[in-house]
């Protein structure tokens, strides 16, 4: 049976819901833009990430910033009762950016977790992740490897409205959408399994260590736990909702689909909060970044409170003298 491919399945099933979601995205943009700009400033001009072995963290910041830039366009479409742009170029460009930035965030977050895993569980062995951190070109390679995952959004047969499960004139549509679904689920499920494994092994290692070694191990636990929080809030819920949506759509339950679509889109909007949560990962990964950020942007009385709370955390400091001033600098972790 021939289906009219010009039929628009991307109208918002409930305009009130999507107007609310649009305001949530505007809020994420208003909070995320200055936050990520300030983090970029710290990494580039104050922290000098290329000297402090924080290249992977910097790449997460770049991915978050590019995500924030896309939010006003998505909010505009939701405000006008559309789940996506009616302009195919704009639609595919936004999907390309969202696929690429989501993949980059996940890839570099998992790389950080693996680095902590090898440093703790396989201490003394050659840590290939630490070797990668010393090579800036590796980050470029990771971005380039992520590009093929965005191919489904660029193909001519791709439907901007995530139309897997609908009937079309040619089988190419179904192949393209199936490929996109495989990419969507594997880039969330497989990294989450790796993350849980790393967390379990690190916690197990922590229980076996003596008191003198536990400070570093606790920091490693906090790193992987912060990444788990980001995954649990931003990525897993939308993956589960996506699976439910595909099930309902394949069963052709149109009334239920209208509801599930709203839930799925709401959880996708929630997933954009990773640009607000990732700074927690930066602070746990490197206490030096946290100290520099606080000393740059926080008022003096807040600096004293926050920095004094870190004095008992086991961080090692070096005291240097500059004229009549004494400056305490934290030793940055590798």
Automatic annotation (TrEMBL):
<dbReference type="Pfam" id="PF00001">
    <property type="entry name" value="7tm_1"/>
</dbReference>
<keyword id="KW-0675">Receptor</keyword>
<feature type="transmembrane region" description="Helical">
    <location>
        <begin position="56"/>
        <end position="74"/>
    </location>
</feature>
<dbReference type="InterPro" id="IPR000276">
    <property type="entry name" value="GPCR_Rhodpsn"/>
</dbReference>
<keyword id="KW-1133">Transmembrane helix</keyword>
<feature type="transmembrane region" description="Helical">
    <location>
        <begin position="182"/>
        <end position="200"/>
    </location>
</feature>
<dbReference type="GO" id="GO:0004930">
    <property type="term" value="F:G protein-coupled receptor activity"/>
</dbReference>
<feature type="transmembrane region" description="Helical">
    <location>
        <begin position="135"/>
        <end position="155"/>
    </location>
</feature>
<protein>
    <submittedName>
        <fullName>12-(S)-hydroxy-5,8,10,14-eicosatetraenoic acid receptor-like protein</fullName>
    </submittedName>
</protein>
<feature type="domain" description="G-protein coupled receptors family 1 profile">
    <location>
        <begin position="35"/>
        <end position="282"/>
    </location>
</feature>
<comment type="similarity">
    <text>Belongs to the G-protein coupled receptor 1 family.</text>
</comment>
<feature type="transmembrane region" description="Helical">
    <location>
        <begin position="221"/>
        <end position="245"/>
    </location>
</feature>
<keyword id="KW-0297">G-protein coupled receptor</keyword>
<feature type="transmembrane region" description="Helical">
    <location>
        <begin position="20"/>
        <end position="44"/>
    </location>
</feature>
<dbReference type="InterPro" id="IPR017452">
    <property type="entry name" value="GPCR_Rhodpsn_7TM"/>
</dbReference>
<keyword id="KW-0812">Transmembrane</keyword>
<dbReference type="GO" id="GO:0016020">
    <property type="term" value="C:membrane"/>
</dbReference>
<dbReference type="InterPro" id="IPR051893">
    <property type="entry name" value="HCARs"/>
</dbReference>
<keyword id="KW-0472">Membrane</keyword>
<keyword id="KW-0807">Transducer</keyword>
<feature type="transmembrane region" description="Helical">
    <location>
        <begin position="94"/>
        <end position="114"/>
    </location>
</feature>
